[in-house]
Amino acid sequence: MNSYDYIVIGAGSSGCVLAYRLTEDPDVSVLLLEAGGEDKNPFIHMPAGIGRVKDNPKTDWCYQTSPQPFLNERNIPIPRGKVLGGSSAINAMVYIRGQREDYDSWRDQGNAGWGYDDVLPYFMKSESNSGADIDPGYHGTSGPLSVMDRIHTHPLSDAFVEAALAAGMPANNDFNGETQEGFGRFQVTQRDAKRCSAAVAYLNPAKPRPNLSIVSKAHVLKLVIRKGRVAAVRYLWAGEVVEAVANQEVLLSAGAIGTPQILMLSGVGPADELSSLGVDVTLDLPGVGKNLQDHLNLSVLAKTKDPISMAGSSGGSRATKALLQYLWNRTGPGTTNGAETGGFLSTHLSGARPDVQMHFIPMMLGKGMKDTGIHGVTVHACNLRPTDRGEVRLASADPTAKPIIDNRFLATDGNIQIMRSATKIAREIFAQKPLAQFMSGEFAPGSSKASDADIDAFIRATAETEYHPVGTCKMGQDSMAVVDGELRVHGLQNLRVIDASIMPTIVSGNTNAPCSMIAERAADHILQ
Question: CB–CB of 313/322 below 8 Å?
């Protein structure tokens, strides 16, 4: 039996940060457990290789929701990284923090120290931003996580921005600076034209440290809890059950799906649900797995007049050409993250605060965000602050069984109205000359689908998520809160949750950067 000061479960966007920061103290020993394998797949590191690692069972958990009643009973894909680096190894690398109001809301919900002014220093601490036109006072330049302007941008992506400006939207050179509203190019988590995942940024520099032990392909079975204290972690590795002792704390960073699953397998969660599955209840904590939130996303597609898009670049001769150019000099379409430009806008339902994010992709993406092979473009539009609340539940007491994920998308009022409005705004942008001059017509929903009823039917038939699950172990003091403001699990000693699941409400944007911030702040407080 091995013992460590800290055991970190999950080598994702938060877990890698914890491993790096905690082992900066040579007197602290850390064990990092990751269910996935090492990040050796070359398509992880080539930005345009995202299509080869997402939906790949070697690098992705390949989760799906339960049938969603308000989305025509469809099962919606929920990709989650299953590899060193977690979801930061398979995402689109867009660096977005969210809005000031997001974090001030966390603070106002009773979580002292989580307001925007409190968390901004931790965003800056994590970041090394080399952008050419970023707002002063909002960015770090010496952190482990490389944030940069993309080397290659497709002309259609810039045409989309010009079209948005022609439609009356403001320009924005820095979505993470003074204001979020407006349209422009996204910054990306890349370094030297390669993906800068949490593993690349934080874990690789820490690997040589003798006080860090990393075990990949380690499937956690349960937390070992004795007299209200988490004493050890039991996991399956190479066909054997291994138990590791935590002298100080266990830090659970398995994400908004994996973290509540591990807690419930350990007997921590809604007592009636656990008992019904034959799980011995250690602590009745009803909020575990509840409060699930995600950004529901619609896609408006248009065909180009000429074969000028990135269609077919995920396979065949175009992919081969892009790969050779990338391997030769790290330039060209191999460096793209797909979602190259976009913006934040306010519908008539939100007032002045943006409630919709758009991502523009210079290719047509169909079901499961797959390349249709038809030359065209895609605008993703998501509702930034959904009111739907879902849950993650155990399917059985078997630790290897995937959990039940029920987002209850569009179950509450107001959400489909925002998405309908976003569809109309996307169409308005498409109609502007800078983009319209390249288009031959709308592919989906299709110009004949003009009524509110038609748009709503399209949303219900095609909407998928933006892959931002959060909130299933929320921070707070109410009866459904799972952790306190220091991310310690209510009712248990020596256990913290440090990942996207602690968000009481979802941030207004991509969730990767906030997960790094959460871990930076947590590590600082743990070491203090």
Answer: yes
The model's pTM is 0.97
In degrees and rounded to multiples of 5, residue 413 shows phi and psi of -70, 150
State the Cα–Cα distance between residues 87 and 93, nearest whole angstrom: 10
Confidence band (pLDDT; 50, 70, 90) for 528? confident
Cβ atoms of residues 122 and 517 within 8 Å: yes
- What is the pLDDT of the chain when averaged over all its residues? 96
DSSP annotation of 524 reads H
Amino acid at 48: A
Q: Please check the confidence at residue 1 and state whether its pLDDT lies above 60.
A: no
Instruction: Please identify which of the residues 152, 295, 375, 468 carries the catalytic annotation.
Output: 468
Please indicate whether residue 375 is annotated as part of the active site.
no
Distance in angstroms (rounded) separating the CA atoms of residues 197 and 326 = 18
Per-residue pLDDT of 322-342, as tens digits, reads 778 888 888 888 899 999 999
Query: Do the Cβ atoms of 142 and 295 come closer than 8 Å?
Result: no
Q: What tokens appear for 317 in the block?
A: 């001769």
* 69 band by pLDDT with thresholds 50, 70 and 90: very high
Spell out the domains of the chain, with CATH numbers in brackets. 1-147+190-292+389-400+469-528 (3.50.50.60), 151-185+296-383+411-462 (3.30.410.40)
Torsion sign (Cα): 245, 248, 254, 258: positive
